[in-house]
């Protein structure tokens, strides 16, 4: 049997115009990273980016809470979990800064670091970027960032350092390329609210397989590096 | 009156479209389910498009991205492959469905897989993957709630983004009640939230037990070698993060050049599909887990499926390859929303299905589908990829006519009609005569319950008697009105 790869590519080549300069056009497009049309609403920064992110994450059924600094993170998490009546184990992303914070406010919960397990009720992660245009978080897998933190626990608390807010998804891609030296991580997730389904009679129900609730802590200060 | 769950008895062949459609029209539960589509998806799409001033321009940009990619498809696929390999993944080129099934099976056997979890994939449906895996003693578990429901019901999807859209909540209650007994769940749940919670609980263990996770792909990014899935439930992410092997199955037309191009397409995809600005989870997967990663699969495979797509690229139906599977065309189709997806008897349904299916299933069996359209043009109007769906259906009609796949009686009648229609004077005379005869014959009832040669029409409905004059005759009469009365409009 013929090599299917060669067979498929040959059939494609027979169907497309063999213009000179095709390869150069493709190389230019691949390395240019040229944005296409970016909507006006995505071209925001500073306070208007913060406002857009907060209202759109709200429209996505997530919640956003502003904090003045990292010291407020664990007290805010404790208050949120108490209000939502979440009592089960809490898993922290093994981020050195996050795990180095004063743990006392989390005393009522069983707290562990690392990859979440099925019994964990709450996962806490640090986002790589926030996209104002759509109210989305951009997170990725890495040395101290398990992907499952964003999916396995029923309650997801995401920390978004305010300086990591960008306007458009394209801005997020540029930052990711810079931070990762153009190496894509195994997993990059854009997360726009908590999990949901409308597969039963087109009625929206929250918490299908991923988190039932998503709470974003938008933290001011320069403790986490800008991305 | 048809019994609940009658969709199961619909024939899974496009050759049975007419019988299936008749059955669908007489199924009150199906009709109840279908009524929600136009109002739900249709209204949501309209609001989402209206809320973004650049929506139309983004559709044009999106169509241009796909056209550029299709013009350079060989080169982008080669680049995509290069990047997947560089990230430590594998690429399997498969010419047809059988080759793709075999490639998946080989990967599963390598790791002695007993169960696989699956995210939603229409290409997996296209190649008939579940039945094939079952026949080889591997249990596929659908994890998208809609796919899970129809797997329990042993039915194919009836919509490309809402596979169980034909099921009422009552029917889902019955299915769960019957099938979840095996897990000790004996109560018949009626609340939607409780039904979702039960499926969530039972599927959790399946993700953890699975040896392989299979997902589809909304996009393949040539620049990075990434595969992209767009979901709302998060099932695809658990499917591809927990098992040690991740297999992605995708058609070769899913490739796009860059992350920037993907961003543009994402802006029109969810808006056109569910009316969301973004779906909840958009996930980019590139290779297996890195050495220092804390989770993720050890192995990453991409199955690249042709299965007739390169032939479409070579054909007059090439534009259909821009399709991003949003489902807007079927949500707005008067035929689809009347008869539902199962009537088509194919993997892909509605207007996009009527263009893909003659290629995938053969024009011989699927020739009815390009005719299952009133050519009202709504599908083309809402298609974010600017695919001229009615024109492409017409191409298939011409192919069917030209290759003798239409009955000789129909072909003969069309020829006579065409001969007359090319002679305006004769056509007008014939039309005037016909209209006068029909108007006179039908003046008492205003309609006919039977017409010679018109049995196909009058079997299911009356044929209205025409007015006393033809349209052309009425038009000629208005032309005599002095010119200036027209000019101030």
Structure overview:
The complex is a heterodimer of chains A (227) and B (489). Chain A is α/β, with parallel strands linked by helices. Helix content of chain A is 28%, strand content 22%. Chain A contains six helices and twelve strands. Chain A has helices spanning 4-15, 22-32, 46-59, 73-84, 96-99, 169-179; strands at 63-67, 90-92, 111-113, 122-126, 129-131, 136-140, 155-161, 165-166, 187-191, 196-197, 205-206, 213-219. Chain A has a six-stranded parallel β-sheet with strand order 1-12-7-4-2-3, with helices on both faces. Chain A is globular and about 70 Å long. Chain B is of the alpha/beta class and 489 residues long. Chain B folds into two domains: 6-310, NagB/RpiA/CoA transferase-like (Rossmann fold, 3-Layer(aba) Sandwich); 408-487, no CATH class. Chain B is built from 24 helices and twelve strands. Chain B has helices at residues 17-25, 28-50, 55-71, 73-86, 97-110, 122-126, 129-135, 145-153, 169-179, 192-209, 235-241, 259-273, 309-313, 328-331, 336-339, 350-361, 363-366, 378-382, 389-402, 408-421, 424-441, 455-458, 471-479, 484-487; strands at 90-94, 115-118, 139-142, 212-215, 219-221, 226-231, 245-251, 255-256, 281-285, 299-305, 447-448, 463-464. In chain B, strand 5 (219-221) and strand 6 form a beta hairpin. In chain B, helix 2 (28-50) crosses helix 12, helix 3 (55-71) crosses helix 12 and helix 16 (350-361) packs parallel to helix 19. The model of chain B is unreliable at 1-7 (pLDDT under 50). Classes of the chains: A alpha/beta (227), B alpha/beta (489). Strand 9 (187-191) of chain A pairs antiparallel with strand 9 of chain B.
């Amino acid at each position: 049997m013929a090599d299917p790869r060669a067979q498929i590519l040959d059939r494609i080549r027979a169907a497309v115009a063999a213009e000179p300069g095709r390869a150069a056009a493709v190389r230019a497009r691949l390395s240019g990273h040229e944005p296409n049309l970016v909507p006006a609403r995505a071209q925001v920064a500073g306070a208007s980016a913060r406002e857009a992110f907060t209202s759109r994450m709200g429209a996505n059924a997530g919640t956003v809470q502003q904090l003045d600094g990292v010291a407020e993170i664990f007290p805010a998490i404790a208050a949120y979990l108490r209000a939502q009546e979440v009592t089960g184990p809490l898993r922290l992303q093994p981020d050195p800064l996050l795990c180095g914070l004063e743990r006392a406010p989390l005393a009522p919960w069983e707290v562990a670091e690392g990859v979440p397990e099925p019994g964990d009720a709450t996962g806490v992660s640090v986002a790589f970027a926030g996209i104002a245009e759509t109210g989305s978080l951009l997170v990725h897998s890495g040395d101290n960032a398990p992907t499952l933190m964003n999916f396995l626990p029923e309650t997801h608390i995401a920390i978004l350092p305010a300086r990591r807010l960008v306007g458009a998804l394209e801005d997020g891609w540029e930052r990711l390329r810079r931070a990762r030296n153009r190496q894509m991580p195994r997993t990059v997730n854009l997360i726009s609210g908590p999990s949901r389904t409308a597969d039963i009679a087109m009625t929206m129900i929250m918490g299908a397989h991923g988190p039932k609730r998503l709470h974003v802590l938008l933290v001011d200060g320069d403790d986490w590096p800008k991305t | 009156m048809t019994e609940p769950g009658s969709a199961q008895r619909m024939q899974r062949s496009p050759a049975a479209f007419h019988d299936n459609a008749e059955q669908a029209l007489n199924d009150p539960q199906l009709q109840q389910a279908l009524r929600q589509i136009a109002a739900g998806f249709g209204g949501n799409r309209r609001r989402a498009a209206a809320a973004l001033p650049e929506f139309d321009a983004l559709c044009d940009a999106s169509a241009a991205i796909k056209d550029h990619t299709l013009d350079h498809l060989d080169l982008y696929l080669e680049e995509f492959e290069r990047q997947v390999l560089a990230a430590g993944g594998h690429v399997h080129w498969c010419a047809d469905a059988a080759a793709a099934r075999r490639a998946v099976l080989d990967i599963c056997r390598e790791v002695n897989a007993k169960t696989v979890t699956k995210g939603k994939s229409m290409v997996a449906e296209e190649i008939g993957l579940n039945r094939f895996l079952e026949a080889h003693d591997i249990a596929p578990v659908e994890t998208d709630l809609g796919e899970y429901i129809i797997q329990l019901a042993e039915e194919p999807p009836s919509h490309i983004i809402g596979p169980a859209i034909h099921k009422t909540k009552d029917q889902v209650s019955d299915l769960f009640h019957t099938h979840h007994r095996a897990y000790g769940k004996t109560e018949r749940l009626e609340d939607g939230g409780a039904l979702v919670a039960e499926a969530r609980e039972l599927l959790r263990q399946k993700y953890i037990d699975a040896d392989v996770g299979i997902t589809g792909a909304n996009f393949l990014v040539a620049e990075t070698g990434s595969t992209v899935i767009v979901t709302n439930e998060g099932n695809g992410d658990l499917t591809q993060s927990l098992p040690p092997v991740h297999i992605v199955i995708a058609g070769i037309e899913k490739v796009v050049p860059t992350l920037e191009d993907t961003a543009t397409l994402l802006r029109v995809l969810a808006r056109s599909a569910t009316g969301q600005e973004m779906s909840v989870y958009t996930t980019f997967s590139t290779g297996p887990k890195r050495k220092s990663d804390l989770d993720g699969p050890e192995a990453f495979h991409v199955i690249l499926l042709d299965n007739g797509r390169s032939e479409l690229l070579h054909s007059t139906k090439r534009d259909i390859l821009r399709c991003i599977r949003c489902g807007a065309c079927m949500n707005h189709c008067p035929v689809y929303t009347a008869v539902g997806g199962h009537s088509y008897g194919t993997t892909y349904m509605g207007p996009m299905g009527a263009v893909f299916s003659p290629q995938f299933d053969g024009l011989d069996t699927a020739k009815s589908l390009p005719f299952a359209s009133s050519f009202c043009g709504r599908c083309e109007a809402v298609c974010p990829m600017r695919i001229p769906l009615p024109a492409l259906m017409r191409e298939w009609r011409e192919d069917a006519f030209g290759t003798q796949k239409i009955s000789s009686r129909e072909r003969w009648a069309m020829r006579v009609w065409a001969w007359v229609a090319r002679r305006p004077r004769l056509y007008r005379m014939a039309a005037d005569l016909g209209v006068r005869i029909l108007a006179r014959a039908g003046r008492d009832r205003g309609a006919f319950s039977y017409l010679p040669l018109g049995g196909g029409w009058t079997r299911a409905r009356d044929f209205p008697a025409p007015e006393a004059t033809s349209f052309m005759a009425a038009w000629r009469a208005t032309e005599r009105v002095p010119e200036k009365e027209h000019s101030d409009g």
